[in-house]
Design brief:
Blueprint: E1 3-7, E2 10-13, E3 18-25, E4 32-39, E5 46-52, E6 57-59, E7 67-72, E8 77-82, E9 91-99, E10 103-105, E11 109-114
Parallel strand pairs: 2-11
Antiparallel strand pairs: 1-3, 3-8, 4-5, 4-9, 5-6, 7-8, 9-10, 9-11
């Protein structure tokens, strides 16, 4: 059973920073993609950033230049450093793990950016 546990969300002012973490546990293939998605109220869940096991990254245009995704393969942990946060970044952020055989979601962590 694979589990993803997120942490690091919270309330921050416009222009502030947050670092999200997600620790994966269980039987995890070494070939995988870890990512962060977000979902604002009334909107669909969209990709924020992803990183493959060999370090290739992908970012949504809305966070490029403001966010950095990284991972520690030894700890099966992925991080999302978000800077220069804007009110429109307010959403529930979900960790996602994709392997060849399956995909998994974390429970989500709330990020709220006040204006």
């Amino acid at each position: 059973q694979v589990q993803l546990v997120e942490s690091g969300g919270g309330l921050v002012q416009t222009g502030g920073s947050l670092r999200l973490s997600c620790a994966a546990s269980g039987m995890i293939s070494s070939i995988n993609v870890l990512g962060w998605y977000r979902q604002a109220p009334g909107k669909q869940r969209d990709l924020v950033a992803s990183i493959t096991n060999d370090g290739t990254t992908n970012y949504a245009d809305s966070v490029k230049g403001r966010s950095t995704i990284s991972r520690d393969n030894a700890k099966n942990t992925v991080y999302l450093q978000m800077n220069s946060l804007k009110p429109e970044d307010t959403a529930v952020y979900y960790c996602h793990l994709r392997t060849v055989r399956a995909a998994y979601w974390g429970q989500g962590t709330q990020v709220t950016v006040s204006s």
